[in-house]
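Reopening this ticket.

The earlier resolution said the output was attached, but the attachment link was broken on my side. Pasting everything inline this time so it's all in one place.
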Amino acid sequence: MSSPALNRVFAVRNVRLEVGGRDGSPHDIAVDESGLIAAVTPASNAPIGHDEVDGRGHLALPGLVNTHAHVDKSWIGHPWQSYGGEGGTDGRIRHERARRDELGIPGLEITRRVLGEFVRFGTTALRTHVDVDLGLGLRGIEIVREAVAEYDGAITAEIVAFPQDGVLRRPGVLELLRAAAEAGAEHIGGLDPASIDRDPVGQLDGIFAIAADTGAGVDIHLHDPAELGAFQFDLILDRTEALRLAGRVNIAHGFALAQVDAVRRRDLLERMSALDVTMTTVAPLRLPQLPLREFDAAGVRFGFGTDGIRDLWSPYGTGDLLGIAWQYARSSSVVRDDDLRRVVDLATGAAGPFAGVGVNSLAVGDRADLVLLDAENAMDALVRTPPRELVLGAGRVLHSA
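Inline output:
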């Protein structure tokens, strides 16, 4: 497979803008040679020029930001794999380890296919976990970097070196995580310190020491429920404070936060806000959702992710991050316009920092990452998830219907 053809666009004309407090009226967006927005002006009647796109009055949103992906091992675009093995986190880990070599995971073509689905649905920036273990070393990270590089900067990706099989229970994994961070992985991960390693203090001490030494961020999968999970929130927050890692720590999934009582959740959210500890969710249907208004009131940032897509963990997933936002909103009973708009914001411009780019409000100086949809407004775009008509990454065409 050759690199994607990325035609440069220097203006998107006649699009409706709601982000940044705009009223949804037609605008033209000019793009400079570095892929940043150079001007946003009321739509003109001048003829559409060379290297310009007629937006046809469609709604423009900032590019979608996938804050929790697994592009090294998602299986979309490849032959169907029947669900097998045992359930539960440890059962899925064993099943994946048993079959990944047979299926060529990780592989460059696998990662290309996943990225292709992401951009088709409007994702222009992502944070992806990439497995690091004794059987793989850092090979998965190298493959993901190569696949992302084929977009020549039109999409951005940050990598979490992810110990899918545990940290302490596999001697040598901590050393691999350190090597990954020293080689440039933006974050190092962890996994259920209590239920997988059965040593939450040991796992977290090891991971946070690497982060403190190398400057990497921390992004921990935490599935453990209720008070067991909340206890690990406390441990994470303690280390974030003690090692002065504020703004560099994320908790993925974090089901416990929606399961503890309101007072316990309030106290955790207050500490998270003070330390700028963020969260990412894949909006699982079987569990309570993270409470939108409580998070916003506390000032705790969170974002949406697709997780794995039709992989050896689950046959579900499409790559549509807006669909995950829909799932979150629907299962949270979000119905009011302001809340629906906020969910769209969390799926798009507000989540940029999770992927190493700034907040995007389609303003001058922002990256020209945008999505056009045939939708009445942001609320309509969320509840209908219509096809993406055009996707630009840094002013280059990633997808055109």
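Reporter confirms the inline version is readable. The chain has a mean pLDDT of 96. The longest strand covers residues 123-131.
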